[in-house]
Design goal:
single chain; mainly alpha; 261 residues; 7 helices; cytoskeleton; 2% strand
Length: 261
C-alpha cells in the first residue's frame, strides 16, 4: 500500500550486469578470458568492431600454435620468416585502422568547418542587411529633403511668375479681406509683425470695470431700486411629504416626463 518516489530515472539507477566469480583450472587457458577487459559500456554488448577483434585474437592464437619449435636452424629461419610476415600484417592492419580514424576525423573536421562557414555567412548576411537598411534610411531621408526643397523652390518660382515683369500693383483691399490667409488676417513675422507681443490688444479695457474708483462711481450712478434682489423659490416638481422628503417614485416620474419631452 506504500510507494516511493526517487530522484533518479531507471537508466541512472541501473547497475552493470552481474559477473559471477570463476576458477581457472591449472594448465588450461579458456578462450573467454581474452575478453575479460571488455566491460558493460566498454565493448559490451559486442558490435562489429568487437567481433573483428575476437576473430583477430583467434587467428593469432592459431598462428602461435602453428609456429615451429626452435630445435633446428631450419625451423628457426622458418619461425623468423613467419614472424616477419605476421609483423608486416600487423603493421598493415594498424595502418588501415589509422586511415579509418583519419577519415573519421576528416569528416568531423569537414562538418565543423561547414558549420563555422554557415555561421560566418549568416553573420555576414546579417551585417550586410543592417548596412543595407541604414543606407535605405539615409536614402529615404535624402529623397525626402530633396522633395521638400523642390516644393519650396517651385512655390518660389510660382510666386515670382505671377509678377515676372516686376510691375508695381495697387493694393486690392477687397481681395485681402476676402482671403483669410492674406496679410490682413495672418501677417508674417518676417515682415515685422509679432502677434504674441500684442496679445491683449483686443482685451476690453474699461475705467469703470478695472479700477476701484470707477466701480464706486458706477455704483453711484445706478438707481437704488436695482440693488434689492427678489428671488422666487421654484416650486417642486415632485410630491413632497410633510417632513420635506421626496419619494423615489416622484423622482422617477420627473425623469420619465423629461425623457418623454
Amino acid at each position: 500500500t506504500l510507494g516511493t518516489q526517487t530522484d533518479y530515472r531507471d537508466g541512472e539507477a541501473q547497475t552493470d550486469p552481474y559477473s559471477p566469480e570463476y576458477i581457472v583450472r591449472s594448465g588450461s587457458v579458456p578462450e573467454i578470458l581474452t575478453l575479460a577487459t571488455l566491460t558493460w559500456g566498454r565493448g559490451l554488448p559486442a558490435g562489429q568492431a568487437e567481433m573483428e577483434i575476437i576473430d583477430r585474437i583467434r587467428e593469432k592464437r592459431a598462428w602461435e600454435a602453428a609456429l615451429p619449435p626452435m630445435d633446428s636452424p631450419s625451423n628457426i629461419a622458418k619461425r623468423l620468416k613467419m614472424m616477419e610476415a605476421m609483423e608486416r600484417k600487423e603493421w598493415a592492419y594498424r595502418e588501415e585502422e589509422i586511415d579509418k580514424l583519419q577519415k573519421v576525423q576528416m569528416e568531423v573536421f569537414k562538418k565543423l568547418l561547414q558549420r563555422r562557414e554557415e555561421n560566418r555567412n549568416e553573420l555576414n548576411a546579417m551585417c550586410l542587411n543592417n548596412h543595407w537598411q541604414n543606407h535605405q534610411k539615409a536614402k529615404e531621408e535624402k529623397i525626402r529633403k530633396i522633395q521638400h526643397d523642390c516644393a519650396l523652390m517651385l512655390r518660389k518660382l510660382i510666386a515670382k511668375r505671377k509678377n515676372w515683369m516686376g510691375k508695381l500693383e495697387r493694393r486690392d483691399i477687397i481681395r485681402e479681406y476676402n482671403d483669410f490667409s492674406s496679410q490682413t488676417y495672418a501677417p508674417l513675422s518676417r515682415i515685422g509683425f509679432f502677434p504674441d507681443s500684442n496679445s491683449d490688444y483686443y482685451a476690453v479695457k474699461n475705467y469703470y470695470l478695472n479700477t476701484f474708483a470707477g466701480l464706486c462711481e458706477l455704483e453711484k450712478s445706478v438707481q437704488p431700486s436695482v440693488f434689492p434682489l427678489k428671488i422666487k423659490a421654484p416650486k417642486p416638481k415632485c410630491i413632497i411629504t410633510k417632513t420635506g422628503y421626496i419619494k423615489r417614485s416622484g423622482k422617477l416620474e420627473v425623469v420619465v416626463a423629461q425623457v418623454h419631452q
